[in-house]
Amino acid sequence: MYYVTICVAERKHALGHIIYDDNKLDCPASFIPSKIGTACIEAGKSLGERFDDVRLEKLTLMPDHIHMLANIDANGSTALGDVVFAFKRFVTRKARAAGFNGRLWQKNYYDHVVRDNEDVLRIMEYMENNPIRWAHQRQENNI
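The structure assignment produced for this chain is given below.
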């Protein structure tokens, strides 16, 4: 299993925005995807259709990057780079069709091999809470 982070070029907030609500204690932040963010969700859902040996466990969108937890069958022939390339290509094509110009993604991506269940739980918690942390940081910095 792999934990992957893919960033938007120049860290532009192209994938959507986070709304913070002090009155909601159970879920104080929610993410509103842009058209490109919606394409990221579609791309994530399509990975299992494109690659028989890939299963997306979780996808979290942030305004300027995405996190994904992907399970790639060790006995399969798909490499992580192929998955990331397909994801970026799918989203870029949708973005261009919607009128986006310029470079969408940073060239590289961050990946981490998930070693055990404790690692999975830590990463899932991080991904789940990332929008809330983002909203708190933005609010603290008056951005």
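Interim note for the steering committee: Residues 117-140 form the longest helix (24 residues). Residues 106 and 112 are 17 Å apart (CA to CA).
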